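Lay summary. Proteins are chains of building blocks that fold into shapes, and those shapes determine what they do. In this project we predict the shape from the chain. Here is one chain we studied, written as its sequence of building blocks.
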Amino acid sequence: MDFFTLTEKRQSVRSYLDREIEADKVSDLLQVVNRAPSAGNLQAFEVVVARSSAARRSLATAAGQQEFVAQAPLALVFCAHPARSSQKYQARGEQLYSIQDATIACTYAMLAATALGLASVWVGAFDAKQVRTALHLPAGWLPIAILPLGYPAESPRQTLRRKLDDLVHEL
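And here is the predicted shape, written in a compact code that computers can read:
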């Protein structure tokens, strides 16, 4: 599938089949995450793979009881690693670039999931302290996004987008 079709096909899915994701697909997806661009190529982000139902249940709780997080057979948690970025970029790296690195990596994962026939949804509504505790995150890692992954059990309608003349501003 070409890139433009891929971006049209990607939708936020919140219902997943009770089907494990094949190890080679998970590996392929994580390889794509590893190729995501980052400021200074520092890759100032970390990815936690939550496979166990207990970990996913804890994430769902931390995300305000969003049950689809626990229902998905796998969830990735993208964390900024500000200290990695601050080594080169000081405060801007710590406060911005590391967060951008994590968000770009998560976006790559979403697109890779779609290309692999999987579904996902970006979850940003969660209690960061609860996520840190549930996953035993090291000090200095900042959870940015939870990405449940699985085979879709629904096909949401394509959502409407803003018109380009409302979104794009030329000078």
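What the prediction tells us: The radius of gyration is 16 Å.
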